[in-house]
Write a structure and sequence with these properties.
Length: 167
């Protein structure tokens, strides 16, 4: 069931949240219009920016120290993807949307044995949409206040009212 449904909510959240980011950072939209080769890196940035999977709980399999904090085997550990994807030790200017961010070592798809099975499909869908939309999008702006899902698991924009013109 999760394989059939998980990608829908996460991919739609990434696409809607990515469009919201382009409205919030119009210079990045212009950058993509000027250089369409940046769409793949922009999609990775959208995935980092939105982090549609918010968190997972895991149980530590072995004792481990992380930055001086002891985690014992059997302890529960909360993995917060939005926090990881805004880590100042990993990302320069993490609160800025950067369509050309490189490197972009986001963890939005998880890591290791729990890496998202649909990651490549999600990337493909978002790249296809934005590759076709951006050259046609003359203008885009908010047409009202956006709202985001209140969630502890998977989420993104619930309503993103926009006004746009196509070229």
């Amino acid at each position: 069931m999760i394989v059939a449904t998980a990608g829908h909510d996460t991919t739609s959240a990434t696409i809607a949240g990515g469009l919201h980011a382009l409205v919030q950072f119009p210079e990045q939209l212009e950058r993509l219009r000027s250089d369409p080769s940046l769409v793949p890196s922009a999609v990775e940035e959208m995935i980092r920016w939105v982090s549609p999977v918010k968190q997972f709980m895991r149980t530590a399999a072995i004792d481990h120290d992380i930055r001086g904090v002891r985690i014992a085997a059997g302890d529960s550990v909360l993995l917060s993807f939005p926090a990881a994807n805004r880590d100042k030790d990993v990302f320069d200017l993490p609160e800025t949307f950067d369509a050309g961010r490189d490197p972009n070592r986001h963890l939005a798809f998880g890591f290791g044995g729990h890496f998202c099975l649909g990651a490549q499909l999600a990337r493909l869908e978002a790249k296809a949409l934005f590759s076709e939309l951006i050259p046609r999008l003359e203008s885009v702006e908010l047409a009202g206040p956006p709202s985001y899902m209140e969630t502890l698991f998977v989420g993104g924009p619930k309503h993103l009212p926009i006004r746009f013109e196509l070229s």
